[in-house]
Model the fold of this input.
Amino acid sequence: MLHFDDIVFGPIFSRRLGSSLGVNILPSKGKLCNFDCVYCECGWNKDGLADRRFPDFEEIEKALQEKMALLASEGTKVDSITFSGNGEPTMHPDFPKVIDAVLSCRDRYFPEAKVSVLSNAFLIGKPSVAQALKRVDNPILKIDASSDELIRLINRPAGSYNLDDIVRELMQFEGDFILQTMFVRSPEFDTTLPEALSGWMDIVRRLRPREIMVYTIDRETPDKSLAKYSVEEMTAFVRPLLDEGFNIQIRG
Done:
């Protein structure tokens, strides 16, 4: 399984974001997430319990300064500074403060780069998290399915998760975010069956995000029963939205 040992790593090529400098503000030797997705490239949460310590703000700030200064001196191209790593970045207790530090470093060393946050949106109801996400260029927020039942099967959220609440909180962005959706199937579920797909499209129409990223599995997954979709299949799934003018990236 993929794992990130450093606070700042890369840049690596991202099929969605180009030359992407990664930022991992989660435990370096473990995994910490309020989802336990069946397709997560970092594996199951239960297998990442060795390290539960968040790097502190000073460690993060130092790593950002050193790495960006080095890359800038080398003339390395950076298209995106991307929060991803070993779990859900918004769980870090200093997440809003870290966002400020990243934006400051970006403006100093790579002013043309976009700051992107990959998040499952579970904590979007916390005002400090929502406000921090509004300050970045690309808040990339996940909704994989159109019902709580399907989300429990695919994303396996910890604690209380209610899709209607998440959608309602996302309305505050007034469409200024990127919606990310994984299309995948297993013997237990298929998010592209007519009722589930129609429900997801209704959510898209309600939120009207400025961009939608539709993709399928690309790396090893902890659930070995998963099957991926082709670009052609996914294009057919979202054809009604494309015809309505939605901006959709489709990645196999």
In short: The two ends are 19 Å apart (CA to CA).
